[in-house]
Amino acid sequence: MNSGKIIEKKYRERKPDKPVKKKRDRKSYSLSIGPIHPALKEPVRFDLKIEGEKVVNVDFELSQVHRGIEWAGTRRNPVQIIYLAERICGICNICHSACFCIAVENIAGIGVPARAHYIRTIYGELERMHSHILWAGVAAHELGFDSVMYYTWKVREKVMDVMEALAGNRITKGIMMIGGVRRDIKEKQVPMLKEALEYYKKGFGKLGDIFLKDPVIKSRTVDTGILSKQDGLALCAVGPTARASGIKKDVRQDAAYAAYSDLDVKAITPKNLLGEVKGDVFDRIVVRLLEVKQSVEIIEECLKQMPKGKIVYEEKIPKLLAELRSVEGDGIGRIEAPRGEVIHYVKLVGEESPFCWKVRAPTYNNLLPWGPMLMGEQVADVPIIAASTDPCMSCTNRAVVTDGNNEEVLDNEAMRRLSVEKTNALKRRVGR
Length: 432
What we know:
Distance between the termini: 37 Å
Number of helices: 18
Shape: globular
Helix content: 40-55%
CATH superfamily of the largest domain: Cytochrome-c3 Hydrogenase, chain B
Structural class: alpha+beta
Number of domains: 3
CATH topology of the largest domain: Cytochrome-c3 Hydrogenase, chain B
Radius of gyration: 23 Å
Largest sheet: 3 strands, antiparallel
CATH class of the largest domain: Mainly Alpha
């Protein structure tokens, strides 16, 4: 992704140098960070221009991770794709599988039972809590505050235990199904879930004190990596990254799905706690902590209001697949994942497998905002600024080859051909 020219043109003068008495030439240097670097949890390469310690131009390069999940999905039936969709992201697996199901349901006109809507909502909010708390630990690590990372991940264990008790697994849950969910939340499981919610309500104050009052964290995050509301809108930021800049954008509010239409969810901005919005790294911490608290409240409301009844449209999977084989059309699913809006596009043509399946994960939207966030900042702040958007490089499942001014996007067939050629070359090299 060659964003350097866009960013340099628009943001070069974002933070001008303080006037100096004597003019002197400033020499800029190139600095490359990544794609493999201790400060990066996934592969991405930053190409920075620096003057001293100050970043004066930003570019970045993706496509070190390409898994071909969408291509693989067009070789499977829709039920098999649910479990493939979970592998798009280890953290946001509920939202991807649910989003795919919603897209197929919209095409086929499948109605989801009310109880299943509430169960989907509960799982979605548990995943949001898990994701935000995990992110807080990563953010602490990027600041060099590993004792906070260990404490935060200890707190995270409770929600992981809850998801394992409900779904049978801590990471990929296998809970979604086209037309509902695969497992009910039983009455005997509710006390355990409520106990976990109380745990987080009591522990929220300590987490808030650590991240919002600690002088070291504040000194590293306040007025660092600012994304203005104007820039956030222009660059299509989503999720906590957008809301931290005062953009009240949230799919749960704007296009309510599952049980959210019954719950009156409102987008959270730093103004809810601080009374003002700066759009810096500190504000992004505030939004995520407040959303953990909001998720606890949403789950409590779901447990109070959840109706009884069926949990899936059709229990017999062969019968469901037979119905889907007769369906033609295209549809979109939209969900507010922990990182922001996820979109799944599916096209069915009356065959066993979809003709097309495309995924837009929130990381796509939150990459270009790195430009204004990093311009004029110190090199030492690059890791925490980049991490403050909670990027997931594995979700950016694309490959682009750049040759001078010519750009080529490799389609499925070209990727397959190149992979075969590479494999054959390796075999010849080792004499097989």
